[in-house]
Structure formats: structure tokens, C-alpha cells
Amino acid sequence: MDADEPDGRGEDELLGQAADAGIHRLAIPTPFQVGRVNAYLIEDSPLTLIDSGPNSGKALDELEQALAARGHAIEDIELLVITHQHIDHFGLSSILARRSGAEVAALDGLAPYLRAFGTSTELDDRFAQELMLRHGIPADVVTALRAVSASFRAWGSAVEITRPLHDGEELRLRDRTLRVLHRPGHSPSDTVFYDESRAILLAADHLIKHISSNPLLARPLGARPDYTGPRPRALVDYIASLELTRAMDLSLVLPGHGMPIADHVSLIDERFRMHRRRAERIHGLIASQPRTAHEIAVELWGNVAVTQAFLTISEVLGHVDLLLASGRVAERADAEDGVVRFQAV
Ligand SMILES: [Zn+2]
Q1: Burial class (CB in 10 A: 0-12, 13-18, 19+), 187
Q2: What is the reported pTM?
Q3: Which of 7, 63, 176, 179 has the largest count of CB atoms under 10 Å?
């Protein structure tokens, strides 16, 4: 159990504040390293579920039990809201929608991606493969990782969005209004939901208390199938999104994993300091000799840079993008193999 928040409110008290607002955290199991994912049941009209958990029998079973503990069944769900494109959050959506007849809401730009989920992940994998090769990951590692990624696909499922949401619009329920805010960075489709009158933000993976959200490199929303570049600036986008959230008046943030957050400003400031420190460390490595993103990742994380190659080059490239933006680093592609190296300016 984590320590109390800086303002002295404990986790139970924060979950209690959410429950008083009719919002109940349902922690659903996932097969992934991140552990459980938070779905949130909003007891309002329509009866609303924010995220579903992954497409697995275990997740479905536990979700049913959690709903039953509050006197509901899956068939009672009237509105299902998807926060972003990661399978631990939306994988069960199509099953829940079919059984309940619920409307399914998500950011408008995400709808085509979710409708064609199989093709979307195939294109994501191809995009990731090219990016990994260009940034120095050995070809045999890239091939192995692609097989791993393909095996994960079963925890997702295509789903039809019947209620597309637009950035800035209001999602009205009987007892509350949620403002829909697009906050890209962790993924291109990150969407947060703001109850201004209660100062509560449903933030999904945009802000998590116990782990820093990885700004994963991903194909931009709506990109053509043959999209190869320019490289998305996920961390640059993420920091801009966090600045917007930092400026909000919030008493409670309900994240996609782990416990509620009472003091979002100090948590975001801590994240900013961490990213600055990491960018400086990477600058030091680049200043000592030109390196690929993968070579930098190996220096920083050793063997994890191989087993989690895409995650770690996403992390490195995000910080290199900050250094590129400030003009301290330059990027050069090898004329023969196209592999990119970064050097200090
Ligand atoms: Zn996520």
C-alpha cells in the first residue's frame, strides 16, 4: 500500500470520494506486466463503464463479479467508453457491447482503428519493425519481437464505435457532464474525461501514480497504411498534454492503473524532473560518442533493451526528440544501411 497523498488523504478516502460521486473502481486482471487495469463504473443514467479490460475469460469473469457486487450485470451497461487504443483497456469491448447492447464511445479519430483492429495492429507491427531496424535493433531481435506482438493480439478485438466523441465536447449523463479532452502522448488516442463541477478527472494512462506512463511510439491516428514517417514525437506531445492537465483545477485523478491521485501538480512536476534528468543522461552518452537509439538503450537498461526493445527505443527516442528540439543533438542516417545515429552538436 502506498503512502498517503501529500495533502494527507489516504487511498481509501480517495476511492471513497470517487464512490460518493457514483464512480467505482473495478480492477480487472490482465496478462501483462502492468498488472491490473482499472475500469470505472459510473452509476448514473446511462449506466456507464469506462474501459473494459482485456479480451480474456478471466477478465470477463472478474468484471461480472465486480458488477454483481454492486448489483449490476453486464446486460445492464448502457454506455461503454474507451479511453485509448491499448488492448488491456478495450479488449473486452466487443463482447460487452454485444451482450448489453450498450453504445460504445471513443475519440472519433480512434473509431477506424478499432473497427479494423486486426489490420491496425498489423500496420502497427510493420511500423514498429521499420523503426526498430532504423534505430539499430538487430534483425533477429526484430523478428522475434514481431512474433511476440502477434501473440498478444488475441487480448484485443475489433469493436464498432457507435458514439464518436470529439475533442472538447461534453458527454452528458443525468447527474454529471464529462468534458472529452484529447491528451495524446502515452498513445496517439489518449482521451481523458473531466467532471468540472466535482473537479474529478478520469485520466486512464495519461497519468499514473506508481509508474511513469511510457510515451510509446505509434503510427499517428488516421495515418495511411503505407505511413513510414516522419517519426512521431510521442514524448514532446506527452509533455505538452501534461502541461494542459497540470493547469487544471482537480481534486481527484482516477488513473487507468493503480490508485487515485490527489495532488496531480506535484506528480506531474516529478515526471517533468525525471524526463529532464533522463534527457541529460542520454545527452552525456551521445556527447561521448555518436550512438544509435538501441545502443543508448543498452547502456541505460542492459538486457531489458533487448527483451523490451520497442519500449526502450521509444523511451530513448522520446528524450532524443527533446534534445533535437533544443538543438543540442543532431541525427544522421548511414548512407548504406539507413541506420540512424545521434551526435552532439
Ligand atoms: Zn495504455
Answers
A1: buried
A2: 0.95
A3: 63
